[in-house]
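Design request, tokens follow.
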């Protein structure tokens, strides 16, 4: 999976892709319109952040490239690539239990906190995309 050269873009399947973990200096792109909302991405090798309408959506430490990022009423899913293991935090519903999967393997059930944030550690190696999803438990 290549890094996202334009920092954020809409994919043919209607999802978005963002981030560039290969940058040595911070880069950002603001006012990216997607489904009626304005997105801002800040990214480089140490951190990648995505905001929607000035509200938190995604953060990874160190920086990553996320492709086919999709948020639904049921959860979130995307593929991610980075040069080393990353801690990824996503915004979901407050105080809700989610089943988290990394590359199709269940890694456990997690409950978001009062602010709706869910964090997961993902083992990454450059050039290898890993699928991450968090879906509401029934």
């Amino acid at each position: 999976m290549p890094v996202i050269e334009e920092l954020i873009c809409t994919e043919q399947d209607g999802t978005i892709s963002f981030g560039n973990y290969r940058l040595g200096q911070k880069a950002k792109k603001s006012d990216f319109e997607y489904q009626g909302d304005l997105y801002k991405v800040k990214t480089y090798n140490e951190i990648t952040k995505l905001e929607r309408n000035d509200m938190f959506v995604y953060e990874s430490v160190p920086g990553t490239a996320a492709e086919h990022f999709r948020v639904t009423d049921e959860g979130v899913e995307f593929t991610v690539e980075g040069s080393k293991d990353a801690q990824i935090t996503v915004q979901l519903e407050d105080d809700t239990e989610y089943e988290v999967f990394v590359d199709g393997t269940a890694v456990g059930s997690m409950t978001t906190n009062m602010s709706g944030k869910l964090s997961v550690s993902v083992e990454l190696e450059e050039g290898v995309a890993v699928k991450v999803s968090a879906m509401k438990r029934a």
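Comment from the thread starter after seeing the answer: thanks! The chain has no helices and 13 strands.
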